[in-house]
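User: Can you write out an input/output pair for a complex, sequences first and structure second?

Assistant: Here is one pair. Inputs:
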Amino acid sequence: KNEVEQSPQNLTAQEGEFITINCSYSVGISALHWLQQHPGGGIVSLFMLSSGKKKHGRLIATINIQEKHSSLHITASHPRDSAVYICAVTPGHNTDKLIFGTGTRLQVFP
Amino acid sequence: NAGVTQTPKFQVLKTGQSMTLQCAQDMNHEYMSWYRQDPGMGLRLIHYSVGAGITDQGEVPNGYNVSRSTTEDFPLRLLSAAPSQTSVYFCASSYKGDFYGYTFGSGTRLTVV
């Protein structure tokens, strides 16, 4: 079993829909990261969370440390949001290592 | 522009050849790391460094070598390329304690034939 599990693996939506991507992990962590990978391949860091909730534009990320679960929400989705969204965790403390989920492929249609 | 620069973007190697993937950052980040991305799998850590002169192995280090002689550069060497090393490679950097998250390079698509 992977230490970081994402669901769903694939997601399609119509423009304007509210999107939720889930991430569960089985190890103790010091931080959780949400990353975005566009079809061109580049990876961009969206959020780093150690507790609570963060918001950036139409993106909202939440984490529940007790339940070892995080969600990434996209409000008013747009075709330009089409990408692979990757959850990653920093296990333990004082470490540079990241453990990645396999990603959620999102396609938003006009 | 500040960021992580990876070269080359594409490379085809024959089995047994060696090569070096370059990674440079200009943000004075202490931490640098190399990952490989294969279809159906999450990115996996190959090697990482917490500062100049300090490196350590990640999850899949076999067949790869690294060194960190300066804060800016973290090259990844393939000693004797094998078809199993066909992958997309990403370099990433961050400040110590990753308070600011990670910055990724644009990736190197390597094919070993």
